[in-house]
Amino acid sequence: MANILERLIHPDERVVVLIDGANLYSASKALGVDMDYRKLLDEFAQHGRFIRATYYTALVEDQDFSPIRPLVDWLDYNGYNLVTKPAKDYIDAAGRRRFKGDMDVEIAVDLLDAAAYADHAFLFSGDGDFVAAINAAKRRGLKVTAVSTIKTNPPMAADELRRAADAFLDITDILNLIGRPPRERHEDET
Predict the structure, then answer these.
(1) Per-residue pLDDT tens for 140-151?
(2) Domain holding 91: CATH number?
């Protein structure tokens, strides 16, 4: 039986994967699952003419240990293209130090650039801010599939994003392909 990616990706399509790291992390946390980035890369590499997967995230630079650093290092050594920038810190209304690092511009530019060398982009994000970039990429001939979830409360995927994309793929429909089984998570935690 064909998996869902085989139905979405034509064998001749040149495919790119763009991952909004913060957005995918929030979606997987809301679903209570872990992403298996090796399986994700391997799965997409099997379909169409896979070009690359790019992971976007902001990093807190002045901390001795960043919880995302091991993941970023692993991705960098295991076939992902990494786009990072320093997170900016600010003080919130309650006086707590917070960090923000929006990667939307970098993702939007790369999505538009992909229209020159790819046929199909999988955008792992539910952020409605990408609607204009998706529409512009589609006008240039790029097919765009948004990958997020509507199975959380509230949904992680904006309605306008789902409407703008050529297709919407709920992460829950491919968890068997890119997620870690619960027993693997428990073994890693011990």
Answers:
(1) 999 999 999 999
(2) 3.40.50.1010
